[in-house]
Amino acid sequence: MKVTSAEIVISAVSKKQYPGDFLSEIALAGRSNVGKSSFINKMINRKSLARTSSKPGKTQTLNFYKINEQFYFVDVPGYGYAKVSKKEREAWGRMIEEYFMQRENLKAAVLVVDMRHEPTVDDQHMYEFLSYYEVPIVVIATKLDKIGKSKRAAHLKKIKQTLQLSNEDIVIPFSSETGEGKEEAWRVLQQFL
Ligand code: GDP
Protein backbone atom coordinates (compact mmCIF):
# COMPACT_ATOMS: atom_id res chain seq x y z
CA MET A 1 0.00 0.00 0.00
CA LYS A 2 1.27 3.45 -0.86
CA VAL A 3 0.48 5.75 2.06
CA THR A 4 0.00 9.28 0.80
CA SER A 5 -1.62 10.81 3.85
CA ALA A 6 -1.81 10.02 7.54
CA GLU A 7 -3.18 12.30 10.23
CA ILE A 8 -4.45 11.98 13.76
CA VAL A 9 -8.13 12.81 13.77
CA ILE A 10 -9.05 12.33 17.44
CA SER A 11 -7.75 11.00 20.72
CA ALA A 12 -10.98 9.63 22.09
CA VAL A 13 -11.83 8.77 25.67
CA SER A 14 -15.40 7.71 24.97
CA LYS A 15 -17.73 6.51 22.26
CA LYS A 16 -19.21 9.95 21.63
CA GLN A 17 -15.86 11.06 20.26
CA TYR A 18 -15.26 8.26 17.76
CA PRO A 19 -15.21 9.48 14.15
CA GLY A 20 -18.63 9.42 12.51
CA ASP A 21 -17.60 8.87 8.90
CA PHE A 22 -18.04 5.07 8.73
CA LEU A 23 -14.58 4.29 7.34
CA SER A 24 -13.14 0.85 8.10
CA GLU A 25 -10.92 0.57 11.15
CA ILE A 26 -8.00 -1.64 12.10
CA ALA A 27 -7.20 -1.60 15.80
CA LEU A 28 -3.68 -2.06 17.19
CA ALA A 29 -3.10 -3.60 20.57
CA GLY A 30 -0.01 -4.63 22.48
CA ARG A 31 1.65 -4.35 25.81
CA SER A 32 3.43 -1.11 26.67
CA ASN A 33 6.83 -0.77 25.08
CA VAL A 34 6.37 -3.73 22.76
CA GLY A 35 6.94 -1.56 19.69
CA LYS A 36 3.37 -0.73 18.67
CA SER A 37 3.97 2.94 17.86
CA SER A 38 7.08 2.02 15.91
CA PHE A 39 5.00 -0.50 13.95
CA ILE A 40 2.38 2.12 13.06
CA ASN A 41 5.00 4.68 12.12
CA LYS A 42 6.87 2.20 9.93
CA MET A 43 3.68 1.13 8.16
CA ILE A 44 2.76 4.72 7.33
CA ASN A 45 6.33 5.94 6.64
CA ARG A 46 6.36 8.49 9.44
CA LYS A 47 9.04 9.00 12.01
CA SER A 48 6.80 9.86 14.92
CA LEU A 49 3.13 10.36 14.11
CA ALA A 50 2.12 7.63 16.54
CA ARG A 51 3.34 8.57 19.97
CA THR A 52 5.58 6.10 21.71
CA SER A 53 5.03 4.47 25.08
CA SER A 54 2.11 5.98 27.00
CA LYS A 55 3.20 6.17 30.59
CA PRO A 56 0.85 5.53 33.51
CA GLY A 57 -0.82 8.62 34.84
CA LYS A 58 -1.32 10.04 31.35
CA THR A 59 -4.83 10.08 29.98
CA GLN A 60 -5.42 6.84 28.15
CA THR A 61 -6.98 7.45 24.79
CA LEU A 62 -7.95 5.61 21.63
CA ASN A 63 -6.05 7.42 18.89
CA PHE A 64 -7.67 7.41 15.45
CA TYR A 65 -5.22 7.86 12.58
CA LYS A 66 -6.85 8.44 9.22
CA ILE A 67 -4.85 6.86 6.41
CA ASN A 68 -5.20 7.92 2.76
CA GLU A 69 -8.64 9.36 3.60
CA GLN A 70 -9.68 5.71 3.31
CA PHE A 71 -9.51 3.94 6.67
CA TYR A 72 -8.31 4.30 10.27
CA PHE A 73 -5.61 2.76 12.35
CA VAL A 74 -6.95 2.86 15.91
CA ASP A 75 -4.15 2.83 18.45
CA VAL A 76 -5.30 1.15 21.66
CA PRO A 77 -3.34 2.16 24.79
CA GLY A 78 -0.72 -0.38 25.80
CA TYR A 79 -1.34 -2.84 28.61
CA GLY A 80 0.76 -4.73 31.10
CA TYR A 81 2.57 -1.77 32.58
CA ALA A 82 3.31 -2.92 36.12
CA LYS A 83 2.98 0.48 37.78
CA VAL A 84 -0.53 1.23 36.59
CA SER A 85 -3.03 1.63 39.45
CA LYS A 86 -6.11 -0.53 39.80
CA LYS A 87 -8.28 2.46 38.91
CA GLU A 88 -6.34 3.11 35.71
CA ARG A 89 -6.48 -0.54 34.76
CA GLU A 90 -10.24 -0.55 35.22
CA ALA A 91 -10.67 2.60 33.14
CA TRP A 92 -8.57 0.98 30.39
CA GLY A 93 -10.74 -2.14 30.51
CA ARG A 94 -13.95 -0.15 30.22
CA MET A 95 -12.60 1.85 27.32
CA ILE A 96 -11.47 -1.09 25.23
CA GLU A 97 -14.59 -3.07 26.00
CA GLU A 98 -16.76 -0.18 24.84
CA TYR A 99 -14.78 -0.07 21.61
CA PHE A 100 -14.36 -3.75 20.76
CA MET A 101 -17.86 -4.83 21.78
CA GLN A 102 -19.79 -2.40 19.68
CA ARG A 103 -17.75 -0.87 16.93
CA GLU A 104 -19.20 -1.86 13.59
CA ASN A 105 -16.44 -0.16 11.56
CA LEU A 106 -13.84 -2.42 13.17
CA LYS A 107 -12.59 -4.94 10.59
CA ALA A 108 -9.56 -6.51 12.25
CA ALA A 109 -7.14 -6.18 15.14
CA VAL A 110 -3.39 -6.29 15.01
CA LEU A 111 -1.87 -7.79 18.15
CA VAL A 112 1.75 -6.73 18.41
CA VAL A 113 3.98 -9.09 20.42
CA ASP A 114 7.73 -9.15 21.00
CA MET A 115 9.28 -11.84 18.85
CA ARG A 116 12.15 -12.32 21.29
CA HIS A 117 9.98 -13.53 24.16
CA GLU A 118 7.16 -15.89 24.89
CA PRO A 119 3.87 -13.90 24.85
CA THR A 120 2.98 -12.69 28.34
CA VAL A 121 -0.16 -13.59 30.26
CA ASP A 122 -1.48 -10.14 29.32
CA ASP A 123 -0.85 -10.92 25.65
CA GLN A 124 -2.76 -14.17 26.05
CA HIS A 125 -5.66 -12.35 27.71
CA MET A 126 -5.76 -9.76 24.94
CA TYR A 127 -5.80 -12.51 22.33
CA GLU A 128 -8.65 -14.28 24.14
CA PHE A 129 -10.54 -11.03 24.57
CA LEU A 130 -10.35 -10.25 20.82
CA SER A 131 -11.31 -13.80 19.92
CA TYR A 132 -14.27 -13.61 22.28
CA TYR A 133 -15.58 -10.56 20.44
CA GLU A 134 -14.93 -12.35 17.14
CA VAL A 135 -12.55 -9.72 15.83
CA PRO A 136 -10.24 -11.16 13.14
CA ILE A 137 -6.70 -11.06 14.56
CA VAL A 138 -3.37 -10.59 12.83
CA VAL A 139 -0.38 -11.18 15.11
CA ILE A 140 2.69 -9.08 14.41
CA ALA A 141 5.86 -10.48 15.97
CA THR A 142 8.07 -7.42 16.09
CA LYS A 143 11.77 -6.79 16.80
CA LEU A 144 12.65 -9.53 14.32
CA ASP A 145 15.99 -7.81 13.74
CA LYS A 146 17.03 -8.72 17.29
CA ILE A 147 16.92 -12.45 16.62
CA GLY A 148 19.47 -14.45 14.69
CA LYS A 149 18.17 -16.06 11.52
CA SER A 150 18.68 -19.60 12.78
CA LYS A 151 16.45 -18.96 15.81
CA ARG A 152 13.51 -17.29 14.11
CA ALA A 153 11.45 -20.39 13.35
CA ALA A 154 11.66 -21.59 16.95
CA HIS A 155 10.55 -18.19 18.27
CA LEU A 156 7.57 -18.13 15.93
CA LYS A 157 6.59 -21.62 16.99
CA LYS A 158 6.68 -20.58 20.64
CA ILE A 159 4.43 -17.61 19.95
CA LYS A 160 1.91 -19.78 18.12
CA GLN A 161 1.92 -22.33 20.91
CA THR A 162 1.55 -19.86 23.75
CA LEU A 163 -1.27 -17.94 22.09
CA GLN A 164 -2.79 -21.27 21.05
CA LEU A 165 -3.10 -20.19 17.44
CA SER A 166 -4.57 -22.44 14.80
CA ASN A 167 -3.03 -23.04 11.40
CA GLU A 168 -5.27 -20.43 9.80
CA ASP A 169 -4.14 -17.70 12.19
CA ILE A 170 -1.68 -15.23 10.74
CA VAL A 171 1.61 -14.34 12.41
CA ILE A 172 3.92 -11.96 10.58
CA PRO A 173 7.53 -11.50 11.67
CA PHE A 174 8.27 -7.78 11.50
CA SER A 175 10.99 -5.26 12.16
CA SER A 176 10.45 -1.54 12.52
CA GLU A 177 14.20 -1.14 12.18
CA THR A 178 14.66 -2.88 8.84
CA GLY A 179 11.11 -2.83 7.45
CA GLU A 180 11.07 -6.62 7.09
CA GLY A 181 7.50 -7.88 7.08
CA LYS A 182 6.01 -4.55 6.06
CA GLU A 183 4.83 -5.64 2.62
CA GLU A 184 3.31 -8.80 3.97
CA ALA A 185 1.59 -6.87 6.76
CA TRP A 186 0.01 -4.50 4.23
CA ARG A 187 -0.96 -7.37 1.95
CA VAL A 188 -2.77 -9.08 4.83
CA LEU A 189 -4.35 -5.95 6.30
CA GLN A 190 -5.62 -4.76 2.93
CA GLN A 191 -7.78 -7.85 2.74
CA PHE A 192 -9.79 -6.53 5.67
CA LEU A 193 -10.35 -3.07 4.20
P1 GDP B 1 5.08 1.10 22.29
O1 GDP B 1 5.08 1.50 23.72
O2 GDP B 1 4.51 -0.27 22.10
O3 GDP B 1 4.45 2.09 21.38
O4 GDP B 1 6.63 0.91 21.88
P2 GDP B 1 7.60 1.83 21.01
O5 GDP B 1 7.20 1.82 19.57
O6 GDP B 1 7.77 3.12 21.69
O7 GDP B 1 8.96 0.97 21.10
C1 GDP B 1 9.59 0.70 22.34
C2 GDP B 1 11.10 0.60 22.12
O8 GDP B 1 11.40 -0.52 21.27
C3 GDP B 1 11.71 1.82 21.44
O9 GDP B 1 12.97 2.04 22.02
C4 GDP B 1 11.84 1.39 19.98
O10 GDP B 1 12.89 2.05 19.31
C5 GDP B 1 12.13 -0.10 20.14
N1 GDP B 1 11.64 -0.87 18.96
C6 GDP B 1 10.38 -0.89 18.50
N2 GDP B 1 10.27 -1.72 17.44
C7 GDP B 1 11.51 -2.23 17.20
C8 GDP B 1 12.07 -3.13 16.23
O11 GDP B 1 11.39 -3.67 15.34
N3 GDP B 1 13.41 -3.42 16.35
C9 GDP B 1 14.19 -2.87 17.32
N4 GDP B 1 15.48 -3.22 17.34
N5 GDP B 1 13.70 -2.01 18.23
C10 GDP B 1 12.38 -1.67 18.19
Automatic annotation (TrEMBL):
SUPFAM superfamilies: P-loop containing nucleoside triphosphate hydrolases
Domain EngB-type G positions: 22-193
Protein's job: Necessary for normal cell division and for the maintenance of normal septation.
PROSITE patterns xrefs: G_ENGB (PS51706)
Lineage: Bacteria, Bacillati, Bacillota, Bacilli, Bacillales
NCBIfam families linked: GTPase_YsxC (TIGR03598), small_GTP (TIGR00231)
Organism: Radiobacillus deserti
GO BP annotations, alphabetical order: division septum assembly
Gene Ontology molecular function terms on file: GTP binding; metal ion binding
Record-given protein name: Probable GTP-binding protein EngB
Family, as annotated: Belongs to the TRAFAC class TrmE-Era-EngA-EngB-Septin-like GTPase superfamily. EngB GTPase family.
Cofactor dependency: Mg(2+)
GO CC annotations, alphabetized: cytosol
Keyword set, alphabetical order: Cell cycle, Cell division, GTP-binding, Magnesium, Metal-binding, Nucleotide-binding, Septation
